[in-house]
Design brief:
alpha+beta; globular
Length: 224
């Protein structure tokens, strides 16, 4: 009996080590592929320079929740806005409950941005550095017949009904947010420094109590 018990404990211990090793290794195996996929898709849709320092996917900190973190995300302009940062974030973090995915529900424990900088510039001719979206002419509804548009909308609605995907968000936050709005055409300038905002509530309900807390170090506004 002692021999069998010892052998049983060794087997259980080995299995636990394998499970822990898998939890650590699996996200790392797909890390590079996911990061490259995200960058490729982003660059297809915007006329800007996108940089990402790191992308981390892990089960360890909040198991069984999956934590995804993007570090050093930066969106810079091109042409007349080359070298000008439109959006920057030190970290963007999202935590998802993996167990709820099997029930067709996406439960986001929290989603947050830390160290966010937004710099909006509108030149005197009206050109804005935030206008970076690349239009997809092939997917434009203007080139589609009316019945094709109605059919596409109907297919999307039916697809949503079939999946019955529920998205639940518990908490979100924006920390250390700095914003500059420099409108040279309208002769306006706005600057906000170090805003911290936290919010939580049940976003699956049509009516719910949203608890928030916001602090701002300073704001200034100039016009003409």
């Amino acid at each position: 009996f002692a021999f069998n018990m010892k052998k049983f404990l060794i087997i259980i211990g080995t299995l636990m080590l394998l499970i822990i090793a898998a939890i650590v290794a699996i996200p790392m195996l797909f890390k590079a592929e996911l990061q490259q996929m995200a960058m490729d898709e982003a660059n297809k849709t915007v006329n800007a320079q996108i940089e990402m320092a790191d992308f981390d996917l892990s089960l360890i900190p909040n198991f069984p929740n999956l934590t995804a973190e993007i570090s050093g995300l930066k969106v810079s302009g091109k042409d007349e806005f080359e070298g000008v940062t439109l959006f920057g974030a030190q970290t963007i973090t999202t935590t998802v409950d993996l167990m709820k995915l099997f029930d067709g529900e996406v439960e986001i424990g929290e989603v947050g941005v830390d160290g966010m900088d937004v710099n909006v510039i509108v030149l005197k001719d009206g050109t804005a550095n935030y206008d970076i979206t690349i239009e997809d002419e092939t997917a434009s509804s203007e080139n589609m017949e009316e019945d094709e548009v109605e059919e596409s909308v109907s297919e999307i609605a039916e697809s949503d009904e079939e999946t019955e995907l529920k998205i639940k968000l518990k908490r979100y936050y924006i920390h250390n947010f700095n914003l500059i709005y420099d409108d040279r055409q309208g002769d306006m300038y706005f600057e906000m420094k170090n805003m911290n905002h936290d919010g939580k509530g049940d976003f699956t309900l049509s009516q719910f109590i949203l608890e928030t807390k916001t602090t701002i170090e300073s704001m200034s506004f100039e016009m003409e």
